Amino acid sequence: MSFPKNFVWGAAAAAYQIEGAWNVDGRGPSIWDVFSQEPGKIFENHNGNVACDHYHRWREDIGLMRDLGLKAYRLSLAWPRIQPTGTGKPNAKGLAFYDRLVDGLLEAGITPWVTLYHWDMPQALQQRGGFLNREMVEWFGDYAEIVAARLGDRVKHWMTFNEPPVVMGLGYHEGKFAPGLKLPFADCLLGAHHLLMAHGRGVQALRAGCTGPVKISLAHTSRERIPATESKRDIEAARHDYFASTERVMWNLSWWADPIMFGHYPADGVKAFGADMPKVTAADLKLIAQKIDFLAYNCYSGWQVRADAKGNAERLPGGWGTGNPRGTLSWLEIAPEAPYWAARFQAQRYGLPLVFSENGYCNTDFVHLDGKVHDPQRIDFMARYLRAIRRATDEGVPVAGYFYWSIMDNFEWAEGYKDRFGLVHVDYQTQKRTPKDSFYWYRDFIRSGGAKL
Ligand code: FCB
Q: Is residue 399 part of a domain?
């Protein structure tokens, strides 16, 4: 069978990873500017000061997206461009940049899907406690209001936050990403609660400030659970493990998704976290549980899970076994069934259509002697994952879109420029863009309406 007719074919990127122009036109410093200037935090001390210089080259980049035939492009806004210190009067030049970008996309026939927060918090807000400060809810709400007033006449697809588990897990708990904190679990739960409330305020502000109906979500992620076999026992074990919230980590999917969808935290986690739980009021939960319109989900990898003799979930040791295929980043084990099970489990639990807001493959792509970038592994990766998504839609699981990560090579956070995810190769010394073989493969695939697989 084939994909639904109006399926959204897209690609994604995020502000700090591509824009560069870090101190231009009134942009304030973000936590990622500060973190990446600190020696030893990023591979070879790279930073996003220049990145892909998309801030100046956006016209060329939109041209490439048009050649690719993208229906939609997922971008994020740099909060410190819009409010350099995170609060107060907006910076006109920062807003004007996104205004031009949105117009440029629309002129090219590409629908912008906009994320408000893809990790680049204004440093001034971090100095005031960041997510540990309950005022974050209002700071974020004010920011969303400014954005809605300026872009809400043209932007109809929104995501409030990108990947809360990374924000709070890698940023506040494990210290690997900005702002590099290693806080006790109780503090992380408090920060997570404020993040969810900020999401709720963001949804309210977007709905109130945009013209006409809008579609809003938050881009979740976790590690997918893939049943070791398709026996009922293994499927139920995988499902149970997927939605369990008892591990003392920030990666539990239901911890983030249940409060939004059901208006309460998962009972197993509340019990397991005990005295570490923050004070949660009914009003807080009401704010968090604003209606959203779809599930946005970033899907890369997964674990195999089977039922043990008692029916309990058991993760298979070592993921997929010695020498399993993966990308150049160690966490990117190739698990093509991941999006199928993610969509199936989530659609059943939460009852909303799902959009894959990210999925992609990283390698050490380079320009070959013939001047082209041959990336057969990426093409194979995409074909495998897309087949799994097609299986889901064939079975009636409501999947509505797919955004490849990323439109172009970019600053991969703590890994710097080492690992390349793009459909377009970027030479960081010259800023030359070269579409990879996968770019042309995806172009033909989109042209065929998803039939060519
Ligand atoms: C996701 C991030 C995105 C990118 C990919 C590889 O976790 O949202 O910015 O770094 O991973």
A: yes
CA of 29 to the centre of ligand 1 (A): 21
Please, which pLDDT band fits residue 452 given cuts at 50, 70 and 90? confident
Q: Is residue 402 part of a domain?
A: yes
Residue 453 falls inside a structural domain: no
Number of domains in the chain: 1
Question: What single string gives the DSSP state of each residue in 37-79?
Answer: HSTTSSGGG--SSSTT-HHHHHHHHHHHHHHHT-SEEEEE--H
Residue numbers of the domain that contains 316: 8-447
Distance 415 CA to ligand 1 centre (A): 11
Q: Which residues are catalytic?
A: 163, 358
> What is the 279 CA–ligand 1 centroid distance (Å)?
31
Cβ of 421 below 6 Å from ligand 1: yes
C-alpha dihedral sign at 202, 204, 208, 212: positive
Ligand 1 atom closest to 362 (CA): 6
Q: Residue for token digits 């259509």?
A: 353
pLDDT over 90, % of the chain = 96
- Residue of 413, 417, 418 to mutate, ligand 1, most atoms within 8 A of C-beta: 413
| Index of the ligand 1 atom closest to the CA of residue 421 | 6
CB crowding 271-306: b at 16 or more within 10 Å, else e: ebbeeebbebeeebbebbbbebbbbbbbbbbbbbbb
Domain with residue 208: its CATH number is 3.20.20.80
Instruction: Give ∠ CA 21-24-27 in degrees, rounded to 5.
Output: 100
In tens, the pLDDT along 28-79 reads: 999 999 999 999 999 999 999 999 999 999 999 999 999 999 999 999 999 9
Q: Give the pLDDT confidence of 107-119 residue by residue, as tens digits.
A: 999 999 999 999 9
Q: Closest Cα to atom 9, ligand 1: which residue?
A: 14
At residue 318, the pLDDT reads 58
Distance 370 CA to ligand 1 centre (A): 30
pLDDT in tens, 216-233: 999 999 999 999 999 999
Separation of alpha carbons 164 and 155, rounded Å: 23
Inform me whether the pLDDT recorded for 323 exceeds 90: no
Asked if residue 2 belongs to a domain, the reply is: no
Q: Judge if the beta carbon of residue 166 lies within 6 A of ligand 1.
A: yes
Which atom, in ligand 1's list, is nearest to the CA of 412? 10
